[in-house]
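Input/output pair, single chain:
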Amino acid sequence: MLSKVILVILDGLNFEVARHALGHLQAYRAAGRAALYKLDCELPSLSRPLYECILTGVTPIDSGIVHNNVVRLSSERSVFHYARAAGLSTAAAAYHWMSELYNRAPFVAASDRHTSDVELPIQHGHFYYVDYYPDSHLFDDAESLRLRVCCRFSTTAPEPVLSRGKARAAKFGWPNESARNAASRQNGPGPSGCAGNLAMRCWRTWQGNDHSQRPPPSLARFLAATRFAMKRQQTLGTRRTFFWCTR
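Output:
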């Protein structure tokens, strides 16, 4: 029986902050029910380039998605493309850049915010486009997709944790209390809208960030876990990133 996979991206979450604040996930690791890996992420460590890097295995310098203002469809094949080609279903609850990379560009909220189209790489989607969209709402969007659609691959990417801590970081250094508190809200237990609970539901789940500032090895473990034949498996580069895997 094929595994189902959820990729949860906590954008900009510092590794040390995660280790300090995500006690719920650490408990699964301590119990031998999850694993923690460190990865070096590619440069530039910006959200859109690294969404592309994580989902295709192609570095920003090769993909051409080198900053957040590159608004076009990806020219690479993503996990969503491979899943669909294999007859598997896909879903995402994420920032609208994910829709622009793999479904349609530019993003038009009226037609692209909620999607259900089996011909698209991301067949079922809830995409937000304002930075202050609450994480609790996004995780509920993801849970709604999980309950309604039998997807083999799904991803969710809330508003960057980094953006909530960076103003204080400039004054007090990084990591700081604001960033820790933002990360703690992604933890569980609690309401259905939290990473700790979503990650430990009945799907096999990977959780990670894309441009933290601490250590790690390769994207190979993640790509292997998806069970899709990716054409490239590449090591992610210099800022530090991490992935959780439930067993």
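Residues 162-174, 189-193, 195-207, 211-243 have pLDDT under 50 and may be disordered. The first strand starts at residue 5 and ends at 9.
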